[in-house]
């Protein structure tokens, strides 16, 4: 197992239980009729430092804010329909699991996946994206959770990011319909 794979496995082992607990807690609040911390916001009108987080507070301007900026750049590339910029948001060994599609592993597969996603999909230009939460996991890894609305469809996204040559790159991405 490569060093990168080991880091990813440890990162997943550390965060998945926490995210499951956070998700169950949010579902319990919704079932009780509790108000959510904030409504969806069009990320185009906000910088990542101003975006809603799970606590309703501004996100940190440090590594977590930089990881959010990388996710925002991914969303902006989707909205512009620029497949090359979308693919550049990912690390070379990234994995993307998009709702209803086969898992894409590596740069070429991810580029192909998003070419299919963006072909004829005019809804991406009007989509709204909200970064719900971001956390750093050490100095070189971060987790960003977001929600998106495209037409009548609502999606949940989970991004694992890592520093790659000083830049934050998406190393693992998963989305599904809410």
From TrEMBL:
Leader sequence segment: 1-26
Keywords: Signal
InterPro entries per record: FrzH/put_lumazine-bd, NTF2-like_dom_sf
Polar residues biased stretches: 47-58
Pfam families: Lumazine_bd_2 (PF12893)
Region described as Disordered: 31-66
Source species, domain of life: Bacteria
Protein's name according to its UniProt entry: YybH family protein
The organism of origin for this protein: Nonomuraea insulae
Lineage, broadest ranks: Bacteria, Bacillati, Actinomycetota, Actinomycetes, Streptosporangiales
């Amino acid at each position: 197992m490569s060093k990168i794979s080991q880091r990813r496995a440890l990162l997943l082992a550390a965060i998945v239980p926490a995210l499951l607990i956070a998700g169950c807690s949010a579902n319990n609040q919704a079932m009780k009729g509790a108000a959510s911390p904030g409504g969806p916001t069009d990320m185009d009108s906000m910088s990542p430092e101003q975006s809603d987080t799970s606590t309703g507070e501004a996100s940190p301007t440090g590594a977590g804010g930089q990881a959010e900026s990388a996710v925002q750049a991914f969303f902006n590339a989707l909205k512009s329909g620029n497949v090359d910029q979308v693919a550049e948001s990912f690390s070379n060994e990234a994995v993307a699991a998009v709702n209803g599609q086969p898992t894409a592993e590596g740069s070429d597969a991810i580029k192909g996946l998003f070419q299919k996603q963006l072909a004829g999909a005019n809804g991406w230009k009007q989509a709204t994206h909200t970064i719900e939460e971001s956390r750093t996991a050490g100095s070189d890894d971060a987790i960003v959770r977001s929600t998106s609305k495209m037409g009548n469809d609502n999606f949940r996204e989970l991004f694992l990011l890592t520093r790659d040559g000083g830049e934050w790159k998406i190393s693992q991405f998963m989305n599904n319909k809410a």
